[in-house]
């Protein structure tokens, strides 16, 4: 595909940014089914949060164009082929991963309304309603904002300038893949949907990974691309679940148990490689110290904030203390990775644990240094649950730069979860 020419000639009706309700991450659908089963009546609010405030989105992106894309997403519904794929495909070695009652609900879904306004050079974009419906806005909303920002820059470029830009980006990625080929026993997946340069570019990156890495490339988080390219859909769960469960807690004691209640519900639904702990929502060390014994028997852990090597070492010690063999456990690294870090972590933990990588923004949106004024460099944009049944949500993370929530509630959560001094790390993506 000649992406540069497609970009130069594109009309959004031909290339809508989000073209399907399954142009989303697999873990969102798994979590949505869990929420549909366990907390269907919870009311939530999600909000766009631009951590990179120097990128003034409301000055780059036309409001009419943004509304047009968001309205288009609200018109989408599952196609017959998409429904058949979800109902009948094998995911993580199992068929009928998605229950008939959930699929019937999903087949009739249209995403709920949004609220959009401009405030101090940024867009305030929020979504309110029932949790199973609102949560499915997160990934498409991020994809739209990221791609519209890219289009605003690309629209200033001529035909040949675009050709050179994409040639350089393709070369840059291919050189990364050549680097990754040298890593023994590499297992790596595409986790780059939420902050991708564009749908077309993510699809190109996935195809490059398929050819360049062969069986070392184990799949993509993007359901639509997984379906069309006949590869594995990859994903488990995310911070959203403990954030909302915690906000619903009535007492400090219930708050302290909320992250484990999330995983107890998950334990009833999934086994094998879907039993992956994400421990950092309220601090990894405290989470593992208070974790029930049955969690040590889960398949593995995902490291998504803080120093990744330290996080993995903490997990290894925890497994050893609980009588588990770390060499049989899976550690998934997924926070702002690029090839040098992937290589270093592979070497450090080879033979000590099973290692896998979720490669995100710096796979699907690494245009650093390729545009004038570095105008296409990726930036940190998130869309998070900010309240549940009228109560604010909180995320502490292992990196205080990623913390969110009202200051008084953050202090309360730190007390309840025993979070001590934390080391700040720059949030690149």
TrEMBL record:
Q: What EC number(s) has UniProt assigned to this enzyme? A: 6.3.4.21
Q: Which stretches make up the Nicotinate phosphoribosyltransferase N-terminal domain?
A: 22-145
Write out the PTM section of this UniProt entry.
Transiently phosphorylated on a His residue during the reaction cycle. Phosphorylation strongly increases the affinity for substrates and increases the rate of nicotinate D-ribonucleotide production. Dephosphorylation regenerates the low-affinity form of the enzyme, leading to product release.
**Pathway in which the depicted protein is active:** Cofactor biosynthesis; NAD(+) biosynthesis; nicotinate D-ribonucleotide from nicotinate: step 1/1
> What class does this enzyme belong to in the EC scheme?
ligase
Transmembrane feature ranges: none
Catalytic activity as recorded in UniProt = 5-phospho-alpha-D-ribose 1-diphosphate + nicotinate + ATP + H2O = nicotinate beta-D-ribonucleotide + ADP + phosphate + diphosphate
Q: Which Pfam families match?
A: NAPRTase, NAPRTase_N
Q: Which residues form a coiled coil?
A: none
Question: What is the top-level taxon of the source organism?
Answer: Bacteria
Q: Which GO terms describe its molecular function?
A: glycosyltransferase activity; nicotinate phosphoribosyltransferase activity
Query: What are the residue boundaries of the Nicotinate/nicotinamide phosphoribosyltransferase domain, all occurrences included?
Result: 187-420
Its GO biological process terms? Answer: NAD+ biosynthetic process via the salvage pathway
Described by its record, this protein's role is as follows: Catalyzes the synthesis of beta-nicotinate D-ribonucleotide from nicotinate and 5-phospho-D-ribose 1-phosphate at the expense of ATP.
Q: What is this protein called?
A: Nicotinate phosphoribosyltransferase
**Species per Swiss-Prot/TrEMBL record:** Donghicola mangrovi
